[in-house]
Here is the input.
Amino acid sequence: MLILSRKVNEKIMIGDDISISIIEIRGDQVRIGVDAPKHVKVFRREVFDAIEAENKAALESAAVLPELKFK
Here is the structure.
């Protein structure tokens, strides 16, 4: 893991086309902005984990469905 120190209005670049901007620092919270191409999905970790769990549950429930037999 790379750990960097940044001040308000400073940026971090990821590759050529993703930038992370420090918008505001207030107490123990930091507001950041993410500028990335539209095809790059950006999620907060807790949202990403919820999506992943939902997808896993959907896969598991699809495997449990009974096989339909047509006459």
